[in-house]
Amino acid sequence: MPEALIISDLFPDCAATACRRIGQSTGGLYPQELSLISKAIDKRRCEFAAGRDCAREALGALGYAPM
User: Fold this and answer.
1) Contacts (Cβ under 8 Å, ≥6 apart) of 57
2) Residue 60, number of CB atoms within 10 A of its CB
């Protein structure tokens, strides 16, 4: 069985990555983000929330505090 590819293996050590399944968002969205997707369907809201969670996690790994 081939070794599983881990997304972080695709990037140099100075880059941070994060990954989660759609629908497993944990952090919630900021009011500004909610306004961006106020007219979106639930599926798109879940995708957006997962992406924002991943962005916050990766930025945190690089030392950036949530804004």
Assistant:
1) 16, 18
2) 13
Cα(14)–Cα(58) distance, rounded to whole angstroms? 11
Radius of gyration (Cα) for the chain, nearest Å? Answer: 14
Q: Are 56 and 27 in contact (CB under 8 A)?
A: yes
Q: What is the pLDDT of residues 3-31, one digit of tens each?
A: 667 888 999 989 999 988 998 877 789 99
Is residue 50 classed exposed, middle or buried when 0-12, 13-18 and 19+ CB atoms within 10 A define those classes? buried
Task: Answer for the pair 55, 48: CB distance below 8 angstroms, yes or no.
Answer: no
Closest CA to 29 of 64, 1, 54, 4: 54
